[in-house]
């Protein structure tokens, strides 16, 4: 099947116009940036947890509102001192805050953030969205970023939109020299003032006005141009046109809840753009005046039957959240799993910096899952649940800055410290013995948050003490609820939230008043954990109020009813297989051999990485051929969740503590027991009932797990870290060489996943959720093609 030309129009048009050359190098500020004088960190450090503003669906089942993409000076914290040896949690570190100009997502028309005594507002995620499966989403997205505040963005030079990259100082080091095969448009950091929204975890239309990540909305022009000008495109200027569109959208979904309407600009009441007074006609006027190359591109896409990509100032998002109501499961039909999902900016090239600026928010989709919780705990209890938005706030992607003496500050860091709802180490309250539900989303663009087991007053005491020890049980992963078996297994277990992961957690407080720290470790690969420092994510103050009794002091005995469409994918359902390879090559000799981040050896462009027929079930082997430094790339695919059926980590530890997750150490070597032994002359060991396995580095047939995963009760994901690879060495520390090829032996890590590609055809993407990797090429297009009948011969 021919590759779709989703990005091709962009690249071809820019090349024809002579716009593919790189913009002048952007001098990235050293870490931390020093924009202005330091200001107090007190307003954002150790303060009560902030409740994020919310947009909720109305009684008619419509989530309507306006999300404003804008920019402001905010108080941002930077870890001090900086450098490769000053990592999160290290004793002696402290925070310094500076005013930083960042991009923001806010509710249009809402009162501005109340500033501190020094007039600088504090960071805040985008508004929480709340709807129910079966509802219709109608969101007006406004882009009113003032491009005059950002040097070298994609939109600064009106004569060359989309024409270049923002690169590190001098074009050297990381990301590298484009002429030497390093970063080059479109796979580079660029376009940070162009926006869109990805509804992460949504099982909805990936085209048109649905979860369409190929859409690019450029900032509204200003009159007069410059910092003092007012945006031309506002909520008021598009309200009448968008209201008519949203009404038509609602009516359309009443007839077909799985509709992928609209499919063309010609679908009323949008256009066509040749009809004066329509929104598309207004868009063409703006594009022709301010971005003529984009106007030509949109016109080509419209005439070819595709959905145009480029817009100015405003965009209407309208889609239906499908509710699966059949009491039994029918093949080739699914629904939206109710749970904790999220949204974020997804303009390729600017995803990392926009997410780091705070352009993320939680999207709660309620359903029977919530009804069952209400039945046990009460409606008032559920409305008081905590929404925790984790992020790594900052102003630059986590670049490896190389200089004359080698890698510079930040070269091995896992990124900034975690914030929660825009605050560092916030504090929340619980009554003695109280059970709360925490909806946790790791919206960070780089690091995983490894949750060490529930706080204990004395970790040297193994016995549980209800007076001083917390407990927790996990209800859901990535917005998809656990069945009762997995819910039962989750008591007090450590867990990882990789970048993009979510978890619903029931947390039970001890009965003794006091302040307790919920601690995590930064993790990009499991090999980080032994040396990583503990970091306080948030603290819980257990008050001296009377202890809570009744259901609100208990874990719900049974997990909420499990939807039939989330039944495990059986062997018999699988209709096809694929192998997808993620690989990062470190900078060997920058800038001539820079770092590369690829899928199947290709950086993101016009190629299709995977083609699937609609309503088919496939099993994919997702490989990681990154061999150093160790990186477990968080694999993410849009629209459909997946189940993991096999995991092979050649670096896996044999045994871990289930509460802390830390590997058990061999007292003789001082190292973790490895699960896989590569030398058959070395005797295998059994520790606490867990036996080591032989892995032959010269026989690829042995490069697989020695224990089979359970065939039932699998968990659903939409982000899963691919285990990193292993480049083995002999006892003398020399690389092992394959005698047949003369090449160094490299053993990839992998997992196998299964997914039902149901309900929605179209184009979307899969990528690494370390967003600097995605922006620099580790993303590819997935095409789900509708089934068509065979040609009939007479």
* Contiguous helical run count: 9
**Oligomeric category:** single chain
CATH superfamily of the domain at 568-785: Cupredoxins -  blue copper proteins
DSSP, total strands = 41
Largest sheet geometry: 6 strands, mixed
Structural class: mainly beta
Order of neighbouring strands in the sheet with most strands:
17-14-19-24-21-22
Could you tell me the mean pLDDT? 86
Instruction: Report the radius of gyration as a whole number of Å.
Output: 26 Å
Strand content: 25-35%
By CATH reckoning, the class of the domain at 568-785 would read Mainly Beta
Spatial shape: globular
- What is the CATH architecture descriptor of the domain at 568-785? Sandwich
Q: Could you tell me how far the N terminus lies from the C terminus, measured between alpha carbons in angstroms?
A: 26 Å
Measured as a percent range, the helix fraction is 10-25%
Task: Enter the CATH topology name of the domain at 568-785.
Answer: Immunoglobulin-like
Q: Which spans of ≥5 residues are poorly predicted at pLDDT below 50?
A: 1-34, 156-162, 168-174, 400-412, 589-593
Please describe the structure with a list of short key phrases separated by commas or semicolons.
mainly beta; disordered N terminus; 6-stranded mixed β-sheet; 794 residues; Immunoglobulin-like; 9 helices
